[in-house]
């Protein structure tokens, strides 16, 4: 039974397990009819998984779902659609070469005889579009319209199928500020018409602006559900990040030397060719750790890819030891004694089907003593691998095991072993401990500090605020592709950073630390 | 001058239609399959097996129309293998299709021996009667092919079936989220392609001829694939390309050019297709999800 | 745990899957044999005797497997780099044709120059023919499957239709016979050479209808070289990385486009060697029908060999044995096309079982964590 009568939806103890992760662990979510409910949490907290369960895309491994008072069993999206649940996915589910109308009616097309009834379809689309103030061009092809309009098409798609409960997965991630305002107007208009909205986000400003209630997920668990008016942004931020046990990082005062790396006026676009990094200038000194704090998706990934030669830049300049390395490719940058722990170890950092000894030389594989005259020196490599496996405590398989057989922590240690073993003078670490066990986290942190103490400059990017705080000597806060402030780590705290990260710079200056 | 008159003589144009018929049919088949997201390089084998089955049907019943029916069943059965292994079990589409092509070569020659006791050419069988419309005499399959072009266009672009087929070939996950059964639609589309390729085979063996000759498809399945690409996965485009290629074949057979050896004319479809794919005539892009198996509900 | 045990396990799984596919294909093949009113047991024993029943049978099995090993390698190598070369057929034709022309055109070269020249010329032209789709893929993003299909038929038109007509001197659809100086050494002639005739097996080799020639050894050497290239050289390391994970390779500073073009050139050259051998060792002229679908059978060979060069040798031997044994079957009244059917069935089952293997791996991954 739903726990309260006015719940249109009550998800109880939902559990969903993927190979290697418990994405949802006894999650509870209850939604009142006619409310705008924000579902917040860091990346990987399990929000999208939970919504995919609700939409029938994933079958839960445990738990019950009540909709309008009845327990329901969702075998596929068609079941969810029938109940009146609609979903606007983060990556739009639109068929690019088809028209707006075709995308909307797909799967429940009006027909006249054998033909698809384009006229009725367009009329229906127009009606919905006018009723909810969702302006679209019914005859345009998806590939020719703006992202904002594509999103409206997605919304009409759900309404066309009679959705009463609409799920939005990070709807603002791809929108411009004006488009976000328009979206929120749409939310209000939907609410006025009696629709219920679940809205996934990690942008707290938006949560405060638009939602009625908030449910916070963290590491696959539901932490709390609160009324929006009863809490501040900072309260929600704390629930999201959690009062994590601060791992004691033993580190001495930094002893920064001369500047090793400098970024000047960097601009980089994302995959959609929209600006992701806006006019960033930064510098890193020898013997210091510069942390970049920010909510994910604010340009960090693009920034790091640009620095490491994996993404083209629009404009700007990089200097390493005073040498211009702006247009160096990935290989040339590595040769400049730059080490890089990439944010996605499965996509970038490792060749999962390669064994340990092949992975531990990736990027250095054509150098002596691993390669001589184009011939791999596997004896040398084996010796080298054996040493590093021991030194970096990589467990779970010998040098002949494939990387994919290692746990996340050991995979990460393997990357650290590789990248730290070529006397790096400049070190880029992106999400170095994501999905890594506690023991490995401590190990990796100590390794990073050791490099710093050896005189390397370190650029650290992490979504874990506590990690940035405890490791960094200086912290640059990134928000919407811009560096909003650079602070000394010893003179700031999570609260201040949290405010800067969520774009409430002015307030941060005005309030004193309590 | 004399060459020019020869090129544009009526008989040459009629011959172009005849040569184009199997290309049109198989290309339409290819369009259905690829529009739904399954690359079908087994058109060649389906056509060959269809050609054999048509002869067998005609020989065993004396009725060439039964042959036509058999040819479609033959194409369908190969298509069912492709669909089962690649759509249902998600094996590599290119690998399995190559297997089907080899299988088709083997099984037709094998059955020639088992059923007819010969190795190269089957006995003569009753062929389809030609129909005369004004001055034009074609076998029925040519007319069928010409009718199927607008029909295929109608199905793909004017009905809800077509909309769904195109959507699963472009963005299967989007279709899935709307409750469309991606793999079922793909399965059916592959079956349609098999029927059409089989029919193309019947044209070769009992439409245009009256016997089966080993390897008689002779690469036409691949030319049809080329016509499909050249026609940008559109029925009318593929029809135009097939006509062009059919015309080239007719010309190669009948006209001697001083400047290009007739043996090389047969390569024109392939060269043109490469040129098109390389983007020299505007980019020709296949359906986005073509060749990718669809796994439901996976991360 | 032994540090090599994972590797051994995976080799054994691959071997098991290949064997299983062959066995299932042979079993399904019996259905077709029943259609001929013959007993499958008789058919398969004829197959066995034809392939392995005598010294001559065994040697000729090696001969038959030669082009298959080479085309198998030409498919397997790009497969490791994430590419599907179904153009081995066309590459074989270009190589064979070039070798045929060089073989008859130069009339007064000594063997020591003429033969290597013909081999290298054939491999080089075939390499270019294979490299072209590589360039198209790397630079213009043209899918290599479609490009190689088209190039197969262009090669047929160029060589079989046009090329032969350009050079043929008799009614036979073939280029003129090559000079003796360009012919590959045939084991049948062993006892005509001073030292070789004293070797232990020379009498056996000089019995009639022994067809084995030099190219078999070149094929085995090619397999060993490719194995070395793939697993021991830096280039091999890079192209395997690209094949497994292009993003990871890019991170490691590896240029995918260079790997793609290189691997397709090499693969074309190896397929070309198959054609070269058929012309210089088997037929002594480039003739219509000499390709015999080897390019496509090569796909089956590569798959059954799990795209490992040494596995490809085994796969080539298996399919060579089927081809050689098929003749014996033919003599006992069973169509040798059974062999093609079995080849096709092997492809289906290997492809389907590959999926099964992936499924097993996934299940293992799921069971492995809590």
TrEMBL record, chain A:
Signal peptide: none annotated. SMART domains: AAA (SM00382). One of its GO terms (cellular component) is plasma membrane. One of its GO terms (molecular function) is ATP hydrolysis activity. Keywords: ATP-binding, Cell membrane, Membrane, Nucleotide-binding, Repeat, Translocase, Transport. The keyword Cell membrane applies. It is found in: Cell membrane. Its main location: membrane. Residues 9-244, 261-505 form the ABC transporter domain. Pfam families: ABC_tran (PF00005). InterPro entries: AAA+_ATPase, ABC_carbohydrate_import_ATPase, ABC_transporter-like_ATP-bd, ABC_transporter-like_CS, P-loop_NTPase. It is a peripheral membrane protein. Belongs to the ABC transporter superfamily. This is Nucleoside ABC transporter ATP-binding protein. It comes from Halanaerobium saccharolyticum.
UniProtKB/TrEMBL annotation, chain B:
Keywords: Cell membrane, Membrane, Transmembrane, Transmembrane helix. The chain crosses the membrane at residues 12-32, 39-59, 65-87, 94-118, 138-157, 187-206, 233-252, 264-282. Its main location: membrane. It is a multi-pass membrane protein. One of its GO terms (molecular function) is transmembrane transporter activity. It is found in: Cell membrane. GO terms for cellular component: plasma membrane. It holds the Pfam family BPD_transp_2. This is Nucleoside ABC transporter membrane protein. It comes from Halanaerobium saccharolyticum.
From TrEMBL, chain C:
Its main location: membrane. It is found in: Cell membrane. It is a multi-pass membrane protein. The chain crosses the membrane at residues 12-35, 92-108, 115-133, 145-167, 212-230, 260-280, 292-318, 338-360. GO terms for cellular component: plasma membrane. The keyword Cell membrane applies. Keywords: Cell membrane, Membrane, Transmembrane, Transmembrane helix. One of its GO terms (molecular function) is transmembrane transporter activity. The keyword Amino-acid biosynthesis does not apply. InterPro entries: ABC_transp_permease. PANTHER family: ABC TRANSPORTER, PERMEASE PROTEIN, GUANOSINE ABC TRANSPORTER PERMEASE PROTEIN NUPP. This is Nucleoside ABC transporter membrane protein. It comes from Halanaerobium saccharolyticum.
């Amino acid at each position: 039974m739903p726990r309260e009568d006015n719940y249109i939806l009550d998800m109880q103890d939902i559990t969903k397990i993927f190979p290697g992760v418990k994405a949802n662990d006894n999650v509870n979510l209850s939604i009142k009819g006619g409310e705008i409910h924000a579902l917040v949490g860091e990346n990987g907290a399990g929000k999208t998984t939970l919504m995919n369960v609700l939409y029938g895309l994933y079958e839960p491994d445990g738990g019950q779902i009540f909709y309008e008072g009845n327990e329901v069993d969702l075998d596929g999206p068609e079941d969810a659609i029938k109940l009146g649940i609609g979903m606007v996915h983060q990556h739009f589910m639109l068929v690019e070469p088809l028209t707006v109308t075709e995308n909307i009616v797909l799967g429940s097309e009006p027909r006249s005889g054998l033909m698809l009834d384009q006229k009725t379809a367009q009329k229906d689309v127009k009606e919905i579009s006018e009723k909810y103030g969702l302006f679209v061009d019914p005859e345009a092809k998806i590939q020719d319209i703006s992202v904002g309009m594509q999103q409206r098409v997605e919304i009409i798609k759900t309404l066309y199928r009679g959705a009463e409960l609409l799920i939005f997965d990070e709807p603002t991630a791809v929108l411009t500020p004006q488009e976000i305002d328009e979206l929120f107007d749409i939310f209000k208009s939907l609410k006025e018409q009696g629709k219920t909205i679940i809205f996934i986000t990690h942008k707290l400003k938006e949560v405060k602006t638009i939602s009625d209630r908030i449910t916070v997920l963290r590491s696959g668990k539901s932490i709390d559900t609160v009324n929006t008016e009863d809490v501040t942004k900072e309260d929600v931020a704390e629930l999201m990040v959690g009062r994590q046990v601060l791992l004691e990082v033993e580190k001495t005062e930094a002893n920064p030397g001369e500047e090793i790396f400098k970024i000047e006026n960097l601009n980089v676009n994302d995959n959609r060719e929209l600006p992701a990094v806006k006019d960033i200038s930064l510098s890193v000194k020898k013997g210091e750790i510069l942390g970049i704090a920010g909510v994910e998706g604010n340009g960090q990934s693009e920034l790091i890819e640009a620095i490491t030669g994996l993404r083209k830049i629009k404009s700007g300049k990089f200097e390493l030891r005073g040498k211009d390395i702006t247009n160096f490719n990935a290989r040339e940058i590595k040769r400049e004694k730059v080490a890089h722990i990439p944010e996605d170890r499965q996509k970038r950092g490792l060749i999962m089907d390669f064994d340990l000894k092949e992975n531990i030389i990736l990027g250095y594989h054509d150098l002596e003593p691993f390669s001589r005259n184009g011939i791999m020196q596997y004896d040398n490599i084996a010796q080298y691998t054996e040493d590093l496996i021991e030194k970096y405590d990589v467990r779970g398989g010998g040098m002949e095991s494939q990387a994919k057989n290692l746990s996340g922590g050991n995979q990460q240690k393997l990357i650290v072993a590789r990248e730290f073993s070529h006397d790096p003078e400049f070190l880029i670490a992106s999400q170095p401990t994501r999905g890594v066990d506690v023991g490995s986290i401590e190990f990796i942190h100590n390794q990073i500090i050791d490099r710093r103490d050896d005189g390397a400059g370190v650029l650290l990017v992490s979504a874990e605020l506590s990690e940035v705080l405890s490791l960094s000597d200086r912290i640059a806060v990134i928000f919407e592709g811009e560096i909003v402030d650079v602070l000394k780590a010893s003179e700031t705290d999570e609260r201040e950073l949290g405010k800067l990260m969520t774009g409430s710079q002015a307030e941060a200056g005005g309030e004193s630390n309590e | 001058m004399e060459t020019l008159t020869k090129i544009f003589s009526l008989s040459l144009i009629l011959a172009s239609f005849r040569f184009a018929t199997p290309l049109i049919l198989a290309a339409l088949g290819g369009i259905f399959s690829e529009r739904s997201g399954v690359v079908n390089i087994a058109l060649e084998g389906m056509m060959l097996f269809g050609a054999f089955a048509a002869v067998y049907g005609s020989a065993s019943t004396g009725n060439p129309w039964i042959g036509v029916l058999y040819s479609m069943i033959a194409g369908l059965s190969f298509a069912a293998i492709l669909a089962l292994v690649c759509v249902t079990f998600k094996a590599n589409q290119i690998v399995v299709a190559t297997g089907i092509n080899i299988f088709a070569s083997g099984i037709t020659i094998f059955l020639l021996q088992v059923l007819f006791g010969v190795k190269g050419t089957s006995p003569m069988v009753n062929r389809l009667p030609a129909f005369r419309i004004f001055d034009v005499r074609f076998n029925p399959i040519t007319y069928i092919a010409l009718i199927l072009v607008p029909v295929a266009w109608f199905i793909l672009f004017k009905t809800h079936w077509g909309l769904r087929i195109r959507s699963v070939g472009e963005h299967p996950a989007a279709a899935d989220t709307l409750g469309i059964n991606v793999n079922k639609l793909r399965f059916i589309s592959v079956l349609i392609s098999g029927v059409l390729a089989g029919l193309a085979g019947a044209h070769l063996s009992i439409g245009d001829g009256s016997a089966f000759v080993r390897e008689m498809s002779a690469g036409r399945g691949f030319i049809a694939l080329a016509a499909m690409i050249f026609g940008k996965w559109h029925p009318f485009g593929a029809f135009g390309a097939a006509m062009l290629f059919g015309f080239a074949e007719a010309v190669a057979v009948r006209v001697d050019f001083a400047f290009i050896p007739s043996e090389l004319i047969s390569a024109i479809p392939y060269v043109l297709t490469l040129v098109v794919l390389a983007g020299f005539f505007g980019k020709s892009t296949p359906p986005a999800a073509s060749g990718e198996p669809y796994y439901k509900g996976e991360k | 745990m032994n540090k090599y045990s994972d590797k051994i396990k995976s080799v054994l799984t691959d071997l098991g899957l290949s064997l299983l596919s062959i066995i299932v294909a042979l079993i399904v093949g019996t259905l077709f044999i029943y259609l001929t009113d013959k007993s499958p047991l008789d058919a398969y024993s004829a197959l066995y005797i034809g392939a392995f029943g005598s010294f001559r049978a065994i040697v000729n099995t090696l001969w038959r497997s030669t082009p298959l090993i080479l085309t198998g390698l030409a498919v397997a190598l790009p497969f490791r780099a994430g590419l599907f070369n179904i153009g081995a057929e066309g590459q074989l034709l270009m190589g064979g044709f070039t070798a045929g022309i060089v073989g008859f055109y130069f009339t007064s070269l000594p063997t020591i120059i003429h033969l290597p020249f013909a081999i290298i010329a054939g491999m080089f032209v075939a390499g270019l023919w294979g490299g072209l789709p590589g360039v198209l893929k790397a630079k213009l993003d043209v899918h290599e499957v479609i490009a190689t299909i088209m190039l197969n038929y262009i090669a047929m038109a160029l060589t079989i239709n046009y090329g032969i007509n350009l050079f043929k001197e008799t009614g036979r659809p073939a280029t003129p016979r090559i000079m003796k100086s360009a012919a590959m050494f045939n084991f049948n002639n062993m006892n005509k050479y001073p030292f070789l005739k004293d070797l232990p097996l020379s009498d056996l080799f000089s019995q009639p209808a022994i067809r084995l020639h030099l190219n078999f050894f070149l094929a085995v050497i090619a397999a060993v070289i490719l194995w070395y290239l793939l697993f021991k050289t830096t280039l091999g390391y890079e192209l395997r990385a690209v094949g497994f994970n292009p993003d990871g390779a890019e991170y490691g500073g590896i240029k995918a486009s260079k790997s793609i073009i290189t691997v397709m050139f090499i693969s074309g050259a190896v397929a070309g060697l198959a054609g070269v051998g058929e012309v210089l060792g088997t037929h002594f002229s480039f003739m219509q029908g000499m390709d015999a679908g080897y390019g496509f059978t090569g796909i089956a060979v590569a798959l059954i060999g799990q795209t490992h060069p040494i596995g490809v040798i085994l796969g080539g031997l298996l399919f060579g044995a089927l081809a050689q044994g098929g003749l014996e079957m033919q003599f006992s009244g069973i169509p040798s096309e059974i062999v093609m059917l079995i080849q096709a069935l092997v492809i289906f089952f290997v492809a389907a079982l590959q999926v099964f293997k992936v499924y097993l791996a996934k299940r293992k991954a799921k069971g492995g964590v809590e």
